[in-house]
Structures are given as structure tokens and as C-alpha cells.
Amino acid sequence: NQPRKREPSFLRALLTTFGPYFLIGSFYKLIQDLLSFVNPHILIQFVSNRSAPAWWGFLVAGLMFGCSIIQTLILHQHFQYVFVTGIRLRAGITGVIYRKALVITNSAKRSSTLGEIVNLMSVDAQRFTDLVNFLNMLWSAPMQIILAIYFLWQNLGPSVLAGVALMILLIPLNGAIAMKTRAFQVEQMGYKDSRIKLMSEILSGIKVLKLYAWELSFSQMIEKIRQGELQVLRKMAFLNAVSTFTWFSAPFLVSLITFAVYVSVDDKNILDAQKAFVSLSLFNILKFPLNALPQVISILTQTSVSLKRIQHFLNHEELDPQRLEMRIGFFSAHASQLTLDSWFSLLPTSLNLQVPKGSLVAIVGPVGCGKTSLISALLGEMEKLEGKVAVKGSVAYVPQQAWIQNATLQDNVLFGQPMDQKRYQGILEACALLTDLDVLPGGDQTEIGEKGINLSGGQRQRVSLARAVYSDADIFLLDDPLSAVDSHVAKHIFDHVIGPGGVLGGKTRILVTHGVSFLSQADLIIVLGDGRVSEAGSFSALLQQEGAFAEFLRNYVPDDDNFQEEDSATGISLYTNAICLRIPLSLVSYGLLSHLLLTAISAFLALQVKLSVFWAYAKAVGLCISVTVCFLYTCQSAAAIGANIWLSDWTNEPVINGTQSNTSLRLGVYAALGILQGIFVMMSSFTLAIGGIQAARTLHNNLLANKMHSPQFFYDTTPSGRILNRFSKDIYVIDEVIPPTILMLLGTFFNSASTLVVIMSSTPLFVVVILPLAGLYIFVQRFYAATSRQLKRLESVSRSPIYSHFSETVTGASVIRAYRRSQDFMAISDAKVDANQKSCYPNIISNRWLGIRVEFVGNCVVFFAALFAVIGRQSLNPGLVGLSVSYALQVTLSLNWMVRMASDLENNIVAVERVREYSETKTEAPWVIEGSRPPPDWPHQGEVEFVNYSVRYREGLELVLKNLSLRVKGGEKVGIVGRTGAGKSSMTLCLFRILEAAQGEILIDGVNIASIGLHDLRSMLTIIPQDPVLFSGTLRMNLDPFGKYSDEEMWQALELSSLHKFVGSQPQGLDFECSEGGENLSVGQRQLVCLARALLRKSRILVLDEATAAIDLETDGLIQATIRSQFEGCTVLTIAHRLNTIMDYTRVLVLDKGTIAEFDSPTNLIMARGIFYGMAKDAGLA
């Protein structure tokens, strides 16, 4: 048991890489800190010495100005180094996480979800960047504090200790508040994560929610989470108000206590202008480091959490490079024991397997027996417990769920290989992709959306297959590539690609399949059962063995030449659930479209954020609250000015035999004014926070309500990422960014305003320079705001590709590894990061530009205040001069912050605009129409009639169904068939009013469905959709989100859908947790869950969108049998791809190009020798 080797330290790696460069910045910071103490000293000289000649005054004013300018330049040098370190850090961390994600094992991948990994890259890496900006405060703040105290001591003697003691007491208070806030933040992050996760599931399954009329239950779940989130936000607001109060009052209380102690200790201690105002400016210098320290500490704690998380991720187990032997000869998996993961109960146990070179091996077996796991083992994706796996030559891999990149179709097929036109065309032909290319708007240059969203399932699978064939590898691992395509397409692909006479003839092929028809052509068939090889041999040998395989075949071969398929997809599908739409070419290609959209959006945003948005936000906050906040701020500024004028008046009080009279009155009023000021600040910050939460609630509720009511086509044309962004990023900005920004903006604005008021009242001459300075300032501000907005936009536009490419990589990691493309993908990712850095860097530089210009304006204010004081010094008393100059010294900082906050607010208020834009999109018909609700037992017969019915997908597109008229009697079983794009799926969508009629009507039991509410309609029909969608949560919630049914009813439904055994074997039973998208159930099991939902609902009309793609024939038989027995008296409409399922139906409807071609019983149609006969002949049924 050797000692555990030390974990590699991520921190050390960061320090060695970025430390030296950063230290240069720290050196500049040191100089700047020392310089900041020069000005108060010059000021002392200046105020106290009344007899000095005028030139001395001018010199001093000039010195103050010069000193400030040098300070500005050095400070920005420091910022430059620090920020550049920050963006370098981010790029480095992003790169290292990306590289790690390509090599972690599957079990490690399971322990951190895709979202978490993307978060490491976006949020945690950003934390480091933020920290770097503050890091120097760790040594600089204590140094500034010590220096300030030293100078104060010189000025006021030991009385300073009273003030310092108070400051030290405030630190733990601030610390405590920071800790508490941190705890709340963690809690709130938890709420936010679960809200976003649920939201993203809702968006990906929105179609199912609509079909089942489940929107209400899900929006209630979201609202509940949101309620908790706002509760925490409110607590944080309380804390923030308190900390703002201490933040604001601290410097004042400190100076108050110091002065009080100073004058009361000894009557001889006189508060004159020099002492008072030099001390005030030193206290103002103290203000910043004292507030910065707790902040830095809290950022440090946050970053240390991020550091741990990243370190944890980087220490995950990696796939063992020796996991596969690459070896000459043939391909064997030698007594290798493979495990999927410790908690999976379906592990391939010991396997012995040898595959000779150039043979075609078929792997068959029931759902969940470890077929895919075996393929993963051969790719080296599994953890090997013992034995060995050896593979000779290069590998190509077709996964069960095709992985498609967001690139053109051609790039997806070439996948980094050089283009060979002749071979490329031949492969497209063999994979039956040529017909699809004619339909796709841009041919093979069509840009495919994320996750292949604008291809149907069958098209995706064929592209994935074409990629494998083009790679020209030695070994092909095909995980059920034929399940997603129509039978005639499957036959074409088998003959031209996979089979002995296909393109791949003579290569080693391992084919996992559910289809029976091709098994006779395989060289070797391996039957898996419960993770072990139950039989193996050639087709004829297995038939003679009379084992499980032979029986399996006997049941299915008679009627199965037409086997597994789903949708041949020659149409381009914009429905995520691969419902095929034949979309006319009027639809511009996806790439062009998104490009046009992007340009249109940025053109729109380039128009300034209009006042209407501010107005909208003010209304959401509540007008009354908005006015109150401004009023409170005014009061607070008045109190602050009052206190300082009172102080200057006090310093001018004549000294009579060494003492000043009525000190206590002076102190009392000074204290009262100061405390009043603090109270106003606290009230205003609290009022604003309450308003902000109010706004956040209103805006989120409107957004959610609107999205739940949005029609389906909205989701088909809008990428879900864009909608999710509204719910995550934009709502976050409204919750947590806008209120503090407004607070800071108002604070700095009133601060600057009061400075100008004080200077003007003490030296009226100052009015002359105000206008030119203000002009310069406003010009700089406008110029900066415009540039910064565009740079921020460029930055965020170039940032999202990094994350989308990353999440694409993580999902397709096994494919990337199988094709050995890891290096290329790293290069792509680095290029995307570089593009992002290109827009970050100008952003940093523009901030330096702004800082230097604005601080120059501030320095001019100081200079003129001093200058006019010199000019008018005969008429001015020293108190007022001290007052105006010490105010002027603060103004630089507030002016600087004011510009930043103003442009921040302008950038962030866009979030309100974006949320509003999506809260006002067009909605579908109302869910319930009170005046016309159908009778409670409707529909009792289940009779469906289409009257002269036409429909189109969206305004401006062609009709998909043209003048359908037909009548289905109650209890009839009708099969709907037709080539892809004939309008089969559209017909069912019309029943549920996912598509609204262009003309005509549908009557169910004589009720026109357009006259009743959507929920009344949809909750009375049952559908088993094509793609099984599950949500993360308990199985119970997935079957019955409204809690309408009893446990007995649920168990009964599970029993009928043959899931009883599986659920019964789980310790939690019905509370079995389904993971996101039902990942921990196999595709077949998910399909059965959908069947169980239908059984629970048991309505008179059942729509079956043939959902037999991923199910082995046994399970399929079960489903068909269950439907026949359980829905005996119901009307059943089945969209069939496998004709054998509908040969015993009452009637078959053949659609062709959106019109009725044939409608009669199956036997009559076969005798009529029309379209249906041709299809049946293809399938070997006629």
C-alpha cells in the first residue's frame, strides 16, 4: 500500500505560468500607493501658510496637478498588466479544461454533468479573472491603512487611535455580513441551477408538454423554485442595506469620533482648517482599502471554491491510453471483462470474442442487454476489470444516437479528411443521401443546426454513417445505424454499404441491430443476453441449435421483411422531434437565416437602448418606489454637505485664550447630520432592493407565462439556447446586476453633484470652468459608452461559440476519440478562444483610455479649485478653502465610477429589453374558454371528422394538407401511411391544434375543436409520440405530474406496459429518479414509459406516432398487443412505417402530397394495386 502520491497542484501551475508578468503590475501599484499620500501634504502647506507669496500658491496648485497626473498614468499601467494577466488566465484555464474533457472516463463524466463542466469553463474561469484585478489589494490595502494612520498620528496625535479602533471593530462586522451573504449566494445558486435545469428540459420537451397539456404543472414547479430564489434575494437585500450603511457611515463615524476625542481630551486642542481637512482627506483615502479588504477576502473565498472545483475536475480519472492493444492480425476481445459502471445492473460480464478480419458480425439481443456496452468496450470507453481487448487498424464508429456537428453537411461527412469528389459522391449515393440533398436548401453546403436540429432522425443517422464510410478505416463499429430509417432505405444502405456487396465489403464490420432481415447475410451472429454471450455462430448454425435465437426468429421472420424503421426523412425537419416537414425552398438555409437574424438583431441593438426600456424597468420597479429612492438620495447629499459646511464653520471659530467655545454644540450637530446621512443611505438602498426584486418577479412571471403559451412554431424557429439565455443570463442580470448598478450610479452621481455645489459655493469663480470640463466629460462618456457597448457585444457573440463547441465536444467525445481527431478539436477550440480574446483585449484598452481621460477631468477640477483659492485667498477663510479642495480630491474617483456605472447600466438594461421582447411574442389560443367547455364525458364515441380541411405550418408557407375530407367512425382502427413529407404527422398535429387550420374544420363527436380551449381538447386525447421524452424527477412525476391517479392505477399501467419488473426491482419503486432526458433508462424503456402514460389517461381517441425505432421486435409486439387489448373500444389512429402493424386495421388512409390518395380496408387496397400495394410489395407483404 504505497503512500498516496501528492495530488498535482493546479494553483502552483498557475503561479509559475502567470506570476512573473503579474508582479510587474504589482510594482506599479506600489508606486501609485505612495504617491496618493503626497497631495494631502501639499494641501497642508497650502492652507496653513497665509503669509506666503502668491507664486508659492500657484506652485503648490501646479504640484498638486502634476502629482495627480503622474498617479493616473502609473495606476493605469498597473491595471493594464493586471487585466491582461486576467484574460490570459481565462484562456489558459479554458484550454486545460477542454483538453481534460476529451480524455476523462465515462464514470467521471457521469459524476459531473455537461452543465457543470461548461460552468467550470464559463463561471469558474471568470472568477479567476475577477480576482486578479483585486489581488494586489491584499498587500496594498494594509499598507495604505498603516501609512494613513501614521500621517494622521502626526496630525492629530493619539486621538487617532479612537477612530482606528472603530475601524477595526467594523471589519469583523463586514466580514460577518460577507460570510452570510456568501451562504445566501450558495443557496441562491442552488435554486438558480435547478430552475435553469428544469427550464432547459421544459424547452427541449415543450412539444410533449403541449400534446399532454402539462404546461400548467411545470410552470408551477418553476414558480415554486423562483419563489424560493426571490426569498433568498430579499434576505440578501437586507444584508446589503446594512453593509451599505456601515460602508457609508464608517469614514464619517471615524472622523467624528477622532475629532470628538481630540477636542475633549484637552481644551488646548484646537480644530483648525489645516487639521480638519487634511484629516478628512486622509480618512477618505482610508475609506477605499477598508472597504476593499472584506470584498477581496470574499472574492478570494469564492475563487478558492472554484479552484477546488477545477482541481477536482482535472484530477478525474483519464482513459488509460493502453486500454486497447492495437495489434496486427485480427480483431479480438479476449476474455475481457468489461464493466459499464459500478451501479449499472446490466454489465457485460465475462466475454470471449474473436472477430476475423474482413467479416461482418451481427450482434443481437433484447433491450438493455449490453450491445452498446460491448461496442464501447471495443472503443476502449469502458473500464476494464481484467483480460484484454485488442483491435487491429483504425476504427470508425457510428453511435446509436447520431452525433452531428454544427457545421455544413459536407464538413460533417468529411470530418477533417481531404475532399475526394468521386469517392464523396459515391458514398452519398450509397448512404441514400442524394435525395435529401435535393430537398435541403443549400445542398451539401446546408448549415446544420446544433445537435442536427434541422435534419430528421433518419437523415442524421445516414450522415453519421457516411462520415464513417468516408473515413476509410479498417474496422467499422456500427451501433444500430439502421433503426432510424425506413425499410426500403435500410435495405438500400445494407446492400450498398454494410452488406457483403457494399462499399464496406471486405472490411471488418461489427453491426448491432434489431432488424432480422439482414441476419442471414452476416458471417457471424452473436446473441447477447444479460451481459454475456448466450449463443454465437452463423445464421444456419444458430437456427439448427434450436436456442433462444431460433425461437426469436420464428416469431418474427414470417411477417418481417419490412423491419424496423422510423422516418425516411427526405424532408428537412425543423421539428426537433424529427417530425418531417417538407419545407419549400422559400426557407433560406439555416446558416443564412441565422446570419441574417444576427445582423438584424445587432442592427436593432445598435439603435440606442431607448428610454422606453428605462421607463419599462421603472414601471416594473414601481413608480412610487423610484421617486422615493431619488428623494432619499437628495436628502442624503444635503445632509452630507451640511455636515461639512458645519465643520468648516467650526474650524473658523475664533480661538479665545487657547480654546474654542461651545465645542459640545458643534460636535452634537455634526454628529446628528452625519448619522442622518447614514440612515438615508440605508433607507434608499433598501427601498431600491425591494423595488429591484419586485421588478425581477414581474418580468420573470411575464416571460414564463408567455413562453408557456407560445405556439409550437415559435420553438421550431428559435434555437432553445436563445430562449434559455433569457431565463438564465438575462434574468440573472435583472436579479443581481441592475439594482446594485443603479445604487452605485445614483451614489456617484449625487456625490459628484454635491462636490460641484460645495466648490462653487466656496469659490464662485469655479463656474467658469465647469462648462468646458462638463463638456469634455460628457463627450468622453458618450464616446466610451458607444464603443464599450459594441465591444461587449462582440465579446459575448464570440464567447458563446466557445461553450457551444465545448458542449458539442463533450457529447461527441467518444466519436472524436474513435476517429482520433482530438488534436484537431483542441486546435478548433483554441481558435475560438483566440477570437474571443481579440474582443476582450480592446475592451480592456478602452477602459484604460476612459480612465485616463476621466481622471484628467477630475485632476482639472482639483487644479482649478486650488487655483481659484489662491487667487481669491484674501477674501476666503481657510476653512472653506480646505473644504473645497478636500472635496475636489474625492471627485476623481466618483466621476470615474459614474461613467463606468452609466455604461454598465446601459449595457445591462438590454436584458430588460430582451426579456420583454420574449414576453410579448404571439401566443396560441387560450387554454380554457369558459363560455364553451365540452361536456365532461366528451368524446364518448370517439368519432373524428375532417371537413374540407387544409393546413400550413406557418404564414407564407405552402399548404401541407389540402382539402382533406374524411370520417373515422368511433372505435375504428385507422392506419395512416405515405411517403415522407406526405403529411402523416401533420395530420395528428392538427388534431391537437399544434397546427391551426388554414380552412375547414375538424369535428370530434360533432364538436368543432377550434371552438374549445386547448387544454380541454388536448387533455381528452392521448398520443404516444415518436420520440420518448422524459423529464428529470421521479417516475411518478413523469407518469402523472398533476397527481391525479392513485398508486394502484400507476402500477397497473406499468404492468400492462411491461415495465413492472424493472420498476419493481428498483429500491425506490415509483420514486425511482429519472435522470435528465431519461438518460438512465434505455431508449426502449423510455418508449414503454410513454405507453404507460397513455394507459393511465385512457381516452376515447388514441394517436400513435409510430414509435418503434429503438425497440426490439419483442417489445414492439408487446406494445401492439397492449394497444389492441387495452384500447379495444377506442378510435386508434396510427402513423405506420412498418406495415405489418396495420394489416389487421379496419381501414388504411394513404396520403400523398397532402391529399387523400386511397382510403379503404387493407385487403381491398392490395387488390386495387395502387400506392399501398406498391408499399406492401416493397415490404414483402403482398
**Mean pLDDT value:** 80
Stretches where pLDDT is under 50 for at least 5 consecutive residues are: 328-348, 558-592
- Which structural class should the secondary elements be placed in? alpha/beta
Q: Approximately how much beta-strand content do the residues carry?
A: 5-15%
Number of helices: 38
Shape from CA axes?
elongated
**Care to count the β-strands?**
22
Q: What is the CATH fold-level name of the domain at 360-555? A: Rossmann fold
Q: Which architecture of the domain at 360-555 per CATH?
A: 3-Layer(aba) Sandwich
In order across it, which strands form the biggest sheet? 6-7-8-4-9-10
SSE topology:
Elements: H1 10-35, H2 38-48, H3 54-101, H4 106-111, H5 114-135, H6 137-156, H7 160-204, H8 206-212, H9 215-265, H10 273-314, E1 325-326, E2 331-339, E3 350-355, E4 360-364, H11 371-379, E5 383-391, E6 395-398, H12 409-414, H13 421-430, H14 434-439, H15 457-470, E7 475-479, H16 487-498, E8 508-512, E9 524-529, E10 532-537, H17 539-545, H18 548-556, H19 590-606, H20 611-621, H21 623-651, H22 663-709, H23 712-717, H24 720-762, H25 767-811, H26 813-818, H27 822-871, H28 878-908, H29 910-919, E11 944-952, E12 959-968, E13 973-977, H30 984-991, E14 997-1004, E15 1007-1008, H31 1014-1018, E16 1021-1024, E17 1033-1034, H32 1035-1039, H33 1047-1056, H34 1060-1065, E18 1073-1074, H35 1083-1097, E19 1101-1105, H36 1113-1126, E20 1131-1135, E21 1147-1152, E22 1155-1160, H37 1162-1168, H38 1171-1178
Parallel strand pairs: 1-5, 4-8, 4-9, 6-7, 7-8, 13-20, 13-21, 16-19, 19-20
Antiparallel strand pairs: 2-3, 2-5, 9-10, 11-12, 11-14, 14-15, 17-18, 21-22
Helix pairs in contact: 1-3, 2-3, 2-10, 2-28, 3-5, 3-27, 5-10, 5-25, 6-10, 7-9, 7-10, 7-24, 9-10, 9-22, 10-28, 20-22, 21-22, 21-24, 21-28, 22-24, 22-29, 24-28, 24-29, 25-27, 25-28, 27-28, 33-35, 37-38
